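RETRY 2/3 - previous attempt timed out on the joint model. Re-submitting the same 622-residue input unchanged.
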Amino acid sequence: MEYRLRLAKRMLFNKKGSLIGAILAVTIGILVIHVNFVIFQGLYDAIVRDVTDYNIGNVQITDKIDYIEKSDLSLVNWLERIPYVEAATPRLSAHGEMDVVTNGMLIEEARIPVVGVDPFRDIRASTVHETVADGTYVFSRNTMVLGSVLAEDLGGVQVGDSVKLILIDRWGQEQTKRFTVSGLAESPGGQGFDYSAVIHIDTLRDMLKRPSSSDSILIRLNDPSKALEVKDFFLLSFPNDDFVAQTVEEASEKQLAGFRSGIALINLIGYFGMMSSAFAIVTIQMMLVNGKTKEIGVMRSIGARRKDILIIFIFQGMIIGAIGAGVGTATGLGYTFYAKETKMSFNGSLALEVTYNWEKISQTALLSFLLAIVASLYPSYRATRLLPVEAMRTV
Amino acid sequence: MLEVSGLTKIYGPKDNQVRALDEVSFSIEQGEIALIVGSSGSGKSTLLNMIGLLDRPTKGHIRIDGVDTTTLNDGAISTFRNRKLGFIFQFSNLLSDLSVLENVLLPLQISGRDYTEEDAKELLRAVGLDDQISKRANKISGGQAQRAAIARGLINKPSIVLADEPTGNLDSLTSEKIVELIKSMAKRLNQTFIIVTHDREHFGDVDRIITIKDGKAFQDEQMEITA
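RETRY 2/3 succeeded.
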């Protein structure tokens, strides 16, 4: 083994306290980045996942100006012939007023968002039906699923209760219909229909006097990476319509943009944490240099050049960086594995969507390795400036 | 071999200068054992540091094997120290992180020349440490450490071995053995030794004695004249 590397290793490993301190500094720096990534990127991805699963799909089709008037049946059938499309379903939304009457008495009335779904297609294209914790999903034209938050706001509506929905149709006329609550929906993080009432799309169309309208088509892909291809193919196929096709990221841009800025900020804080680790390495290596002053003097006296001393301490930085990066990455991966396997969530909120981002993991490990080397430069330089005759006087 | 001429070393600021060496001149031939003696603070260690290129003189010249070492730059000085000079310190100064063998091999490794461990093992055998080669340097006795230091000082076959109080930290019995070892190695290898000591009696007959007094050097005959 190269004598400078051997000497660097021995000097470092014989000062176990310093070595452990330096490795811990690098490890903690990396772990902070990993934890930040797992939590904040996991939260971001979880929101994208739930928005995809519940509201938008991988690709969403809307109309530039108004409702989609083209037959939802023909559109869905056309879409489902694309190999990448697993399922598609129309959605229609409106706002209405709801009265809850129990024992002939008006308990509560509120203005609420209403979503119309095709129950048979929706369960293929979306998983929002899985959020129905109590009762069943919309299964007929006079049943309604209420979001749990809404049900609570309306005075604790239960499955089986009767509610009255009042809408204003396209001609300005008030339309009223009574529904039986078939289920209550509750999703972790509230990305589902927790704040809405869900009814059969045809019932909503009838009430709005819009017999064939939809305001969006939700498309679920069997390969989400083909979202752009499907979108472009769709738009090319309907050049004369006013369709807007967007991927989930595009459609939820407003919702996610702020979150992305937050992640960038958190990452920045993480990288500052890594810089702090570098300062810790500088301090620990300065201690190592001070502790080896006499040895440096001896080495210089027997012919070691400044370059040799520099290389020895840079080797130490590389050893600290390599072990620290290894331990830090292993610890970070352990945390990521734990978060993924336990479907980690905070206070019953949505479960984090944990992924192994190997590119980022490698970058973080490499960056911390390089930072450890950079951090060792100043102590190494200081070691080279020691005059042999003075260094050897050190006790 | 070694020529020192007009060597002067002045420490401190202009208004408070200390003249540690004052126009010191002498020469030492190949294979000689020379003692540098003098009382504490007389400048003998300063002189050894100058000869060993560990410190630069204020004035004067040191020629080793015809090379004026006072003109060398830092890198050349390191190479010169490695190739032409061997050091034996009072406290052996072995690197505690390395084994005895690795300590002896270190000057060879620093030189970048091809080497075999056998060279070091042979020297360690010669100094009586062949059974200690794998031990960590801080796990052997003071006398053994000093023997290892002698082996390290000789490994590169230097022109001059400089020894600064090599027996100063040892008991009298071990000191005698070390002195014997140095003398026998000098004879065996025709090696020049320059030894700083405050106890000339220990070394018995040597080729040359240089006495430093108040920064000035006197060779043995001169000392008698001035006395």
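The interface with chain B takes residues 3, 6-7, 10-11, 14, 294-295, 298-308, 387-389, 392 of chain A (CB under 8 Å). Closing ticket.
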